[in-house]
Amino acid sequence: MVNIILLESAIELVPREIVDHPSVIKNAKRRGKKPEDTLLDISLHYHAMKSLENKYKRGRPDIVHQALLLILTDPTVKGNVYIHTIESKIIKVNPNMRPPKNYSRFVGLMEQLLRYGKVPPGSNEPLMEILNLKLEDLLMEFNLVLLTEKGEKIKPEELCKLDNKWILGIGAFPHGDFSDYVVKMAKKAYSISKFPLETNQVICRIFSACNMVLDWP
Hints:
The structure is a single chain. The chain has two domains: 1-11 and 59-217, SPOUT methyltransferase, trefoil knot domain (Alpha/beta knot, 3-Layer(aba) Sandwich), CATH 3.40.1280; 16-57, no CATH class. It is 29% helix and 19% strand. The protein is built from seven helices and eight strands. The protein has an eight-stranded mixed β-sheet, with helices on one face. The longest helix is centred in the C-terminal third of the chain and has 15 residues, at 199-213. The chain is globular and about 50 Å long. It starts with a strand and ends with a helix. 32% of the residues are buried.
């Protein structure tokens, strides 16, 4: 079992301070939605985001989409899956969920989740649900291993040998470092490459290593 949490994930609804920006209104109108009910996306809202704090870590929901496709479609490596957002929301992902491969459908699903708190709304067994927890609350259940280029260098297969009280923290933002808030909660910090890796590369290395440990079932 490999537990994973995507940390400081660059996924959020358009923040209140830019809902009146022309690029935000244009995209929302095209999709028949209110601006505040659409995902922040730097490819659509680049000019609007110039005024946002911490703008370089925000507006990349595609990173979360790619990560979930890798994590949830592997037939052998299973575990608990969580998303910690840039706004510090904690999302629990049903490990049996099959995320939509189509990005537009994924965007609609996440917009529904961030607006209503779960998908499907009102479900007793949701695919995803926002928990009434802070990161420190969740980490009372798990010990956090932070995957960072600043960590101790190890082989990725070593991560596959951790028991289910550990959770692997993988950054899901485009630029910058983990906040001090996150770093201070880590019990261990490891690096699995001498090079900086993107989110999907980290996941691919870990899952390939775990399948190798399992003798490629």
